[in-house]
Design goal:
Blueprint lengths: L8 H14 L3 H15 L6 H12 L1 H4 L13
Length: 76
C-alpha cells in the first residue's frame, strides 16, 4: 500500500544522508522506524511476535520447567 508522507526539507535531507551512510533505502529506514514504533507500544509486528506475546500472557512460558537429572551409581 502506498501513502504520501510530508517531511520538512531539513528532516528529509537528514534521512537521505542516513540512508546513504547505512547503505539502506528510504523504504528500509521507514520499515525499521515503524517496527520500532509498534514495538514501543506493545503491538506485535509479525506472527512470531504475536505468538510469543500470547504465550507470555497466558503463562505458558512459566509452565515449562526442566526435569531434574538423576545420577546413576557407578559400578566398579
Amino acid at each position: 500500500m502506498r501513502k504520501l508522507i510530508a517531511f520538512d526539507e531539513d528532516s528529509f535531507d537528514k534521512l537521505k544522508q542516513l540512508g546513504r551512510d547505512r547503505m539502506a533505502t528510504f523504504q528500509e529506514l521507514a520499515d525499521e522506524a515503524f517496527a520500532d514504533l509498534l514495538k514501543k507500544h506493545g503491538i506485535p509486528i509479525d506472527l512470531r511476535d504475536a505468538l510469543r506475546k500470547s504465550a507470555k500472557r497466558d503463562g505458558a512460558a512459566d509452565k515449562v520447567t526442566a526435569r531434574p537429572r538423576t545420577r546413576k551409581a557407578k559400578s566398579r
